[in-house]
Amino acid sequence: MDAHIRDLRYFVAVAEELSFTRAAAERLFISQPSLSRQIRQLELSMRARLFERDRRTVALTAAGAALLPEARRIIEQWEGAQRAVAAAREERTLVVGFQTRIGRGLVPYISSALPGWDLRFRQVPWSDPTVGLGDGQVDVAVAWLPVPGHGDYEWTVVSTEERWVALPAAHPLAARSEVTLADLAGEAFVAMPVSAGPMREFWLADDQRRAPAVVGAEAETAEEAFELVASGRAVVLVSAGNAELYRRDDVVSRPVTGLSPSRLAVVWRRGDRRQAVRRLAEAVVTCMCGVSRLSPR
Fold first, then answer.
1. Cα 58 from Cα 166, distance rounded (Å)
2. Which end of the chain, C or N, has fewer beta carbons within 10 A?
3. Residue 231: CB partners within 8 Å, gap ≥ 6?
4. DSSP state of 23
């Protein structure tokens, strides 16, 4: 069922953007070839062409125009069903998604803030830029911005941290107290998967480079990234807090001067009005910021 809903989401994104390129890059954070394959698979299953396309334009066919309102309705009903099941299930369970170690005292704090609830923590690979929120795997995510979506999510920033670089312990730059992005211009970097979209670009500092980063390897998790660094294959940008959380003898981390900071946020689905979700998000904010009021964006 989830695969069918996913394909309908892809179809709606292309139908609303009337562009495979924009839908892939700005809405779905997948590669355009992957999006084209999934749309073709949907067309095969529907036994109808849904889009007319040439090099410049994309337009809905009559079949596509007929499917669009139904696809929106099915997606809305599926999301409503997920919410209803979550609200009705007897066990009091909330799932918190994360992609790098949470640390920062969050786990014991939020566990004590929701007594009687079964809190589960799920690591989601970097290939999913929604940190599990998009497909309903998690209820709340502790995530590094940016997050995708056109108004699909709300969030409150709970920590702002400098970006550092993790280097092999024997790297010549490891002897310095800090480095610049120019010092790293010739280095091979560990990158997130292409599907991570803007988050991949942020952690390569692409917006602050004169030339694109040299990608030496890709990793699905922080653990994989640090193994690649320790092996000498590449370096990777990390937050200052994660530089401490992932401390190890064969990796050295140094501040990178001049880079804009990274932002850690608590994120939830905009339409999720469950009181327990709000309490969980507020607990994260209270632990990290010392205040109890959410300031959603």
1. 44
2. N
3. 168
4. I
Are 122 and 96 spatial neighbours (Cβ–Cβ below 8 Å)?
A: yes
For residues 153 and 130, what is the distance between their CA atoms, to the nearest angstrom? Answer: 9
Cα separation, 164 vs 261, whole angstroms: 9
Please, which residues have CB within 8 angstroms of residue 31's CB and are 6 or more apart in sequence?
24, 194, 195
Of 169, 168, 215, the closest CA to residue 192 belongs to: 215
Phi, psi of 183 (to 5 degrees): -60, -25
Within 13 Å, how many C-alpha atoms sit on residue 252's CB side?
A: 14
How would DSSP label each residue in 159-223?
Answer: EEE-EEEEEETT-GGGGSS-EETGGGTTSEEEE--GGGTHHHHHHTTGGG-SSPPEEEEE-SSHH
Q: Where are the beta strands (DSSP E) in 230-287?
A: 236-239, 251-257, 262-269
Return per-residue pLDDT of the chain as tens, 297 residues.
567 888 898 999 999 999 988 888 777 777 788 888 899 999 999 999 999 988 889 999 999 999 999 999 998 888 888 777 766 654 578 899 998 887 767 788 888 887 888 888 899 999 888 999 988 889 999 999 988 766 789 999 988 999 999 999 999 999 999 999 999 998 999 999 988 888 999 999 998 888 889 999 999 999 999 999 999 999 999 999 999 989 999 999 999 999 999 999 999 998 888 888 888 888 888 887 765 556 666
28's tokens? 């779905």
Q: What is the DSSP letter of 146?
A: P
- Pairing between β-strand 262-269 and β-strand 140-144 as defined by DSSP bridges: antiparallel
